[in-house]
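Ops channel
N.P.: pipeline sanity check, posting one input/output pair.
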């Protein structure tokens, strides 16, 4: 019972901090970003450690990388964007590793079919982008492949086996896909013209996507233990 109370408290705290962070992004309060952004992944780690019986340390490392990514994305400069993308790429590899480990795919044909539309969309946007710095091009290409694979495994797992675990994974993947589209459009298409709208939107998607992925990891552990 004590564990449930703790998890409920930290879940409510996560929601409150997420709302505060969205407001901070809207009003462009840099000090608030520095304080609140690292807190969100840390709270997910606390909830996970409190709820998980198995404790996947890869997931914990992934969330600490999210802390670092959030800090690197605060300054609106090309250099910090590049470093942030590098760290986020490592994070995405770990996310894919966890997803493959939990889903245990046996047939890769549905994965290929489900991944293809996402690859087409992301690479169309990539080739149409106007102001993509040369040093970020390889990282963005890898990012596009990884997010497409993540979305593909989520969609194919849901279609092949519609259970709670795969439903939560699909929700998380769709949120991450929309998040990447919003960030890409803001950075390379609109040249930060609508950052006051797009950044709060991105933060909303980010907080929901990571929380949904945490729920997927937890549900996957329960099913595997059973």
């Amino acid at each position: 019972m004590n564990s449930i109370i703790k998890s409920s408290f930290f879940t409510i705290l996560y929601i409150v901090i997420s709302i505060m962070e969205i407001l901070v992004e809207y009003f462009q309060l840099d000090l608030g970003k520095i304080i609140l952004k690292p807190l969100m992944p840390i709270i997910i780690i606390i909830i996970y450690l409190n709820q998980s019986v198995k404790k996947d340390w890869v997931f914990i490392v992934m969330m600490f990388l999210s802390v670092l990514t959030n800090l690197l994305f605060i300054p609106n400069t090309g250099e910090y964007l590049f470093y942030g993308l590098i760290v986020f790429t490592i994070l995405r590899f770990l996310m894919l590793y966890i997803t493959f480990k939990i889903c245990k795919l046996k047939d890769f044909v549905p994965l290929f079919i489900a991944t293809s539309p996402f690859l087409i969309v992301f690479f169309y946007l990539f080739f149409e982008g106007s102001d993509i710095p040369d040093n970020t091009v390889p990282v963005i290409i890898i990012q596009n492949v990884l997010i497409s694979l993540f979305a593909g495994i989520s969609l194919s797992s849901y279609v092949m086996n519609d259970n709670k675990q795969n439903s939560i994974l699909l929700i998380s993947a769709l949120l991450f896909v929309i998040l990447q589209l919003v960030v890409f459009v803001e950075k390379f298409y609109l040249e930060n013209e609508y950052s006051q709208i797009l950044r709060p939107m991105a933060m909303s998607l980010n907080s929901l996507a990571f929380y949904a992925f945490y729920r997927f990891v937890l549900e996957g552990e329960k099913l595997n233990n059973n």
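N.P.: looks fine end to end. The mean pLDDT is 90.
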